[in-house]
C-alpha cells in the first residue's frame, strides 16, 4: 500500500509539474522526489532482493534505516576510491552477494525541515489516516507511514538569513560518503560507498589550469618588471654617480684654473709694480747723473772760456778787445752747439737705458706669461687625461653593470622556465591521475553492471533460441518446445 501511495504521489507530482513551468529550485525538488519514489519502489521489488539459499533459515528484517551523514566538510574527491588489482571477471565477484543500490541523496532536506518549522503546515488527510491506522493496527504489525503532501511555501515566508548566500553550480562535482548496514542470509553486512555526483568538468578544470598559467604569467611579468625597475634604478644611480664624478672633476679643474689665473694676474701685477718702481728709480738716477754730467760739462766749458781769456790776455792790449770779442762769440756759439749736442746725447742715453729696461721688463713679463701658459696647458692636458680615464671607468662600469643585469635577467628567465615546466608537469600529472581514476571508476562500474548485463543477455539469447525452435519445429504445440528447451539446457553426460 505504501509503495502504491508513493507511486501515485510521484505520478501526480510529475503531471502537475508538467502543466506549469518550474523554477530551477522547484525542478530540482521534483526530480529528487521522483528519484526517491522510484528508488523506494525498486527497493521493495523482488529483483533487487538478495538471493537466499533454501538451507538457511529466513530472517525477518524489522527495518532498514539508511542514515545519511551531512557533509559539512570538503572531501578529497578521489582519495578513497578502492583500487584493486584482481581479475576482471573473477568468479568470487560474480557469485558474491551485492548490496541493493544506494538511495539518492537529498541535499534540500535540511532546508525543507527548516521551512516546515517556520511555516505551520495545514491539517491534511494523511494525519487522520495515520491516526486511524494507529487505532486499527496491532502492536505486532509494522506501522504504515503515509507520506504527507508537499507544503507550498511562498518565498516571502523565508527569512533573509536562511536564503543561500551563493548559487550552487550545476556542474560542480559532489562527493558523498554513505555507510549502510543490512542483513544478507542472516549475516549483518556493513558497506561504505562513495558517490561522485555531477559530471567531470573538463572545461572547468582546463579553465582552472589556464588561470594557474595566467597567474604564473602575471607573476613572471611582475618579476620581470621588478627586475627592469631595479635595473633602471641601478642605471640611474650609476648615471648620477658618473655625472657627479664628472661635475666634481670639472669643478676641481675650474677651481685650479681660477687659482692659476689669479696667481698669474697677481704675479704679473706685482712684476709690473716692481718694474714701474724700478723705472722710476732708474729715471731718477739717470736724471741725477745727467745733471751731474751737465754740470761737469758746463764746468769744462767755463774752464775753456777761462783758458781762452788767458790766451787773449797774452795778446797785446790793442788786439785784446777785438780778439776777446771775436773768440768769445765763437766760443759761445761752439759751447751752445756742444751743449745742445750734449743734451741730445744725454737724452738718447737715457732713452736707450729706459728702453733696455722696458725690454727687460717685457721679457720678464713674457716669461711669466709663458710659464703660466705652460702651467695652464699642463692643467688642461691633465683635465683631458682625467676625462679620458673617467670615460674609460664609466664604460667599464656600464659594461659590468649591463653584464650583471643580463645575467640576472637570463637567470630569472631560466628560473621562470623551470617553474613553468614544473607547473605544466604537475598539471599533466593531475590530468593523468584524473584519467586513471576515471578509468578505475568506470572499471568498477562495469564490474558491478556485468552480472546484470550477462543475465539480460542470457535471457535474450534464451528467448531468441526458443523463438528459433518454435519457428523451426513442425509441431506448433508448446509442450514439445518446452521439453526441447529443457533438454537443450541440460548438460550432456558423456557416456
Automatic annotation (TrEMBL):
Which InterPro entries does this UniProt record tie to the protein?
A: PKK (IPR022165), STE20_Ser/Thr_Kinases (IPR051585)
Q: Where is this region: Disordered?
A: 1-61, 88-168, 224-248, 473-495
Could you say which residues form the signal peptide?
Answer: none
Tell me which stretches of the chain form a coiled coil. Answer: 321-378, 418-445
Q: Which GO terms describe its molecular function?
A: protein serine/threonine kinase activity
Q: Write out the biased-composition intervals (Basic and acidic residues).
A: 236-248
Ordered alphabetically, the record's keywords are: Coiled coil, Kinase, Phosphoprotein, Serine/threonine-protein kinase, Transferase
- Polar residues: bias regions: 1-22, 226-235
PANTHER family reported for this sequence: PROTEIN KINASE DOMAIN-CONTAINING PROTEIN (PTHR46538)
Protein name, UniProt field: Uncharacterized protein
Amino acid at each position: 500500500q505504501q509503495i502504491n501511495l508513493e507511486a501515485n504521489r510521484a505520478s501526480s507530482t510529475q503531471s502537475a509539474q508538467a502543466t506549469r513551468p518550474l523554477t530551477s529550485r522547484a525542478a530540482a525538488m521534483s526530480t529528487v522526489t521522483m528519484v526517491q519514489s522510484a528508488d523506494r519502489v525498486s527497493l521493495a521489488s523482488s529483483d533487487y532482493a538478495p538471493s537466499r539459499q533454501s538451507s538457511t533459515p529466513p530472517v525477518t528484517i524489522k527495518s532498514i534505516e539508511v542514515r545519511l551523514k551531512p557533509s559539512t566538510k570538503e572531501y578529497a574527491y578521489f582519495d578513497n576510491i578502492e583500487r584493486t588489482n584482481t581479475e576482471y571477471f573473477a568468479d568470487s565477484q560474480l557469485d558474491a552477494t551485492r548490496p541493493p543500490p544506494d538511495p539518492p541523496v537529498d541535499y534540500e532536506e535540511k532546508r525543507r525541515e527548516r521551512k516546515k518549522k517556520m511555516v505551520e503546515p495545514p491539517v491534511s488527510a494523511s494525519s487522520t489516516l495515520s491516526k486511524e491506522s494507529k487505532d486499527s493496527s496491532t502492536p505486532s504489525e509494522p506501522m504504515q507511514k503515509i507520506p504527507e503532501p508537499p507544503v507550498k511555501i511562498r518565498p516571502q515566508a523565508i527569512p533573509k538569513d536562511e536564503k543561500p548566500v551563493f548559487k550552487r553550480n550545476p556542474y560542480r562535482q559532489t562527493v558523498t560518503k554513505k555507510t549502510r548496514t543490512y542483513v544478507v542470509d542472516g549475516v549483518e553486512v556493513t558497506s561504505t560507498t562513495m558517490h561522485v555526483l555531477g559530471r567531470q568538468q573538463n572545461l572547468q578544470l582546463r579553465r582552472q589550469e589556464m588561470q594557474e598559467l595566467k597567474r604564473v604569467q602575471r607573476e613572471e611579468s611582475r618579476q620581470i618588471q621588478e627586475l627592469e625597475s631595479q635595473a633602471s634604478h641601478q642605471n640611474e644611480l650609476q648615471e648620477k654617480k658618473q655625472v657627479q664624478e664628472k661635475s666634481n672633476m670639472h669643478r676641481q679643474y675650474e677651481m685650479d684654473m681660477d687659482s692659476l689665473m689669479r696667481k698669474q694676474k697677481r704675479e704679473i701685477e706685482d712684476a709690473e709694480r716692481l718694474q714701474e718702481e724700478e723705472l722710476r728709480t732708474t729715471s731718477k738716477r739717470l736724471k741725477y747723473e745727467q745733471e751731474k754730467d751737465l754740470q761737469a760739462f758746463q764746468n769744462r766749458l767755463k774752464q775753456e772760456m777761462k783758458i781762452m781769456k788767458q790766451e787773449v790776455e797774452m795778446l797785446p792790449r790793442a788786439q785784446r778787445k777785438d780778439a776777446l770779442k771775436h773768440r768769445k762769440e765763437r766760443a759761445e756759439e761752439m759751447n751752445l752747439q756742444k751743449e745742445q749736442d750734449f743734451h741730445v746725447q744725454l737724452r738718447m742715453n737715457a732713452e736707450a737705458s729706459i728702453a733696455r729696461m722696458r725690454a727687460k721688463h717685457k721679457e720678464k713679463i713674457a716669461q711669466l706669461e709663458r710659464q703660466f701658459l705652460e702651467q695652464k696647458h699642463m692643467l688642461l692636458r691633465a683635465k683631458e687625461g682625467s676625462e679620458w680615464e673617467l670615460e674609460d671607468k664609466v664604460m667599464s662600469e656600464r659594461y659590468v653593470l649591463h653584464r650583471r643585469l643580463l645575467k640576472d635577467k637570463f637567470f630569472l628567465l631560466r628560473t621562470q622556465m623551470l617553474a613553468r615546466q614544473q607547473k605544466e608537469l604537475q598539471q599533466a600529472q593531475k590530468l593523468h591521475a584524473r584519467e586513471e581514476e576515471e578509468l578505475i571508476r568506470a572499471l568498477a562500474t562495469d564490474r558491478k553492471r556485468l552480472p546484470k548485463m550477462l543475465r539480460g543477455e542470457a535471457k535474450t539469447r534464451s528467448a531468441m533460441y526458443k523463438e528459433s525452435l518454435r519457428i523451426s519445429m513442425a509441431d506448433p504445440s508448446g509442450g514439445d518446445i518446452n521439453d526441447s528447451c529443457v533438454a537443450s539446457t541440460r548438460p550432456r553426460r558423456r557416456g
